[in-house]
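S., here's the first fold you wanted:
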Amino acid sequence: MRSIGDAIHLVSGSAGAGQLKGAGARKVAHSDDKLTTGPCDVDPVRHAELRRAWDAEAAPHVEFRRPFDVENLRAALAGDAPILLWGTRAYSDLIWICSALDALERIGVERSRCCLARPHSDDPYVIVGMFAADETRGALAAATAITDEQWREGGALWNTYASSSPLAFDEARRRGSSAFPELTTSAELHGAWFPRIQDGRLRLSELDEVLLGSAGDSWRTPRKIVEALPEARLTQLVRMFDAYFHVERLRAWATRGVLERETLDDQNPFEQDRFHMTDRARALLNDGLERVGDAPPMYVGGCRANDPASPWVRIADDAGWRLALHSQD
């Protein structure tokens, strides 16, 4: 790598792009479209179509998301400048790295142009945009050529993540990866939105339980709901899964009558609604679900969670947990 200013930098998030520019990067390509929420697909054209349609439906007035497809990437990388792919070991950054490796291979970028920069933190939820400029420069100095194993496993992980079945990605998480050793711990969050079998009963997903349980008996805006969460849960729900997604999820629960929703006259997307719990919400928290489809469906990578047609659930086992189809649904 010649210098930070010579390279084309690929990074997830405006904060990461800002940090790189502050450290001296002149050409940065980034997307605020977190791939840990919303639909994904192994076909890049179909993937881009799904992302744009989902974003237009779910958040038509939110401007910070920018789906970044293969053609955007091809245009950003024109020329022969070195390419620096940035990402930490946090779950959302790991998914970003894998998607980017797959896309780089698809457009035929010369591997010799590419390096990987991975700022390190002991906090498993720290993303690139949270590092200081001197730490960013240190990560640049430590950047390495992307190995054949990283190219191979990164592309494979993306394709399993974007598949309509979550099993292959879950099996990869359980098996572990020498190219991406953080996979086993980072991808614990892959199971956070699947309903769970506990003590023979069907329960809400881990993060749905957190979100509904924080809605409270009094009217609260989404901002107030997440501000009441413990720091670790707030970090998981917002930093790893898109800053706006919890608003969409609260609205989805309201369409099921589980939360009451009132629309407010406010242009701030995090203050446009307020919610409170209903007896139905309390029953779901206390007693669990009768069937998978009792919860509003959502995408986890290429898979649809809470879909009666493919009722995936999280089941505890000796290794922690695994995903399986719910045989009684």
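And the second, which I think is the more interesting of the pair:
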Amino acid sequence: MAIKIAIVGLGSRGQDWVREVRAAPAFELAACVETDPKVFEIARERLQIPAHQCFPNLADALDQSTSQAIIVATPPDRHVSACSEALARKLAVLVEKPFTLRLDEAATLVSSAEATDTPLLVAQNYRYLRSFRTARRLIQEGRLGNVSLVVMQYYRIPHQMADSLAGLPNNVLWGMGVHHLDVVRFILGVDVKEVMADSFTPSGSTLPAGASLQVLLTMANEARVSYTATYESSGHEYFERGQEFYARFVGDLATLHIFHRWLILCERGKLPRLVRRGPRKTTEEQILLGQLEQAMRHGVAPEVSGRDNLQTVATFEACLRSATEKRAIDVRELLSDAG
């Protein structure tokens, strides 16, 4: 029998999830929740959502539907309330990134879920992009040897952002940094130990404070990661819809370059060669829904559990503290304090 699921928030990501749930045989769309009537009307018309599945608040949706799980795709500052409501009813949760805006809030949700053995997953779908999965595989296979240095850079031209993101300070951290800071943990297979960060906006910019970010991570295995991200780049408006991404993984046997969807492996003593990413057999969202199904039906621990994502939340909280306090922040101390 299909798992009945409610989707909370019908902005662009919520609409994506409606399509993904409808395409997943293991799930059945039971309810959709949206507090903004204009957004709801657009989504209803675009996706042909039946009136009986539409609710203006989560409590009514859960009272009147038979949902067994929810997907939270609201603006980030509303994640906690939606997750808390569902977990109080022992309903499984898949919440969009960022999990929460504060580490203590994330820790409270994880404790609540674990107290009742309720699945809580964070939708870190960048982990399952083919480029990053291939990089993780090559490192696990030992093709690069000991990876001691990583450089990651993301550039985007000034652009129209969702209102919920545009108004947030440090929006490049919340919009893209949470993806990349999580995925470097996933690719290397180790957690972050220490963070030194600077968040800034050049004078004359119309964006909120913190539209650019520079971070130095020290990983648990002493590897160093340099990360730069900005929403204030220019001159590449006609390349990849105004976005550029580059990563370099330096090992003692080889270096791997990632430029968007292209991977180039430079092995010692050999000519550089392109590495195939393999076919995209399913979407990243379907991979996450598969983990949710396995957690609910069989108790399988998901890779993207709330517990695992506490490491990512602690990392971006360390970025914010470091940028403010102008000093290195120990991620392990933050996690210890959060319980």
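Why I say that: The chain has a mean pLDDT of 95. Residues 306-325 form the longest helix (20 residues).

Talk tomorrow,
H.
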